[in-house]
Amino acid sequence: MIDGLSSMHRLNEFAPDAPDLVVLSSKGGDGEARVLLPTRRISYVAFFKETASAAKTDTSALQEYQIGVPGDKRFEMLTDPAAISDPVGFYAVPSGGGSLFSEVFFFCPGVNYLQDSKPLGSMLVDGGHVEQEDIDRGPGMSGSA
Length: 145
What we know:
Layout: E1 10-11, E2 20-26, E3 32-38, E4 44-48, E5 63-69, E6 73-79, E7 89-94, E8 101-107, E9 113-116, H1 120-126, H2 132-137
Antiparallel strand pairs: 1-2, 2-3, 4-8, 5-6, 5-9, 6-7, 7-8
C-alpha cells in the first residue's frame, strides 16, 4: 500500500487499469468477504509462485532495476525498459531465484524510485562519455601522460 503497510489477499482476477481491485479477505472462521481496494492506494501486487511449475519467463530482453516502494521495501527485478513508461504501471519478474513471487505488478504512482542496476561504468560507456579501455584501466588512469 502507498502508506507503507502490507496486506495479503486473494484475487480472482487482476485488472491493473480498474479503479478498484476486488480482493477476498478472510473473515476469521466465517469464510471470506469481498473487499474493494482503490488501486490509487496500492504500490504493487505480487503473485505467489504456483506449486506446479509455471512457464519460465524469457528474460533475455529484460533489464535489471532496483525498485523502491513505501515502507522501505526494495525489489531487485527484471522488466522491459519500455514498460516502465506506462502511466498505470508495469510487470516485473524477480532477478534472483530466491523470491516467493513469480511476478509483481508495480503501480507507477506507488513507486518511490526506479534505479537501473547496470554498473555506472557500463552506463558511461553506453552513453559515449568514456571508452571501455578507460573503465578497464581504472580510476585516475585515463587521459594523456
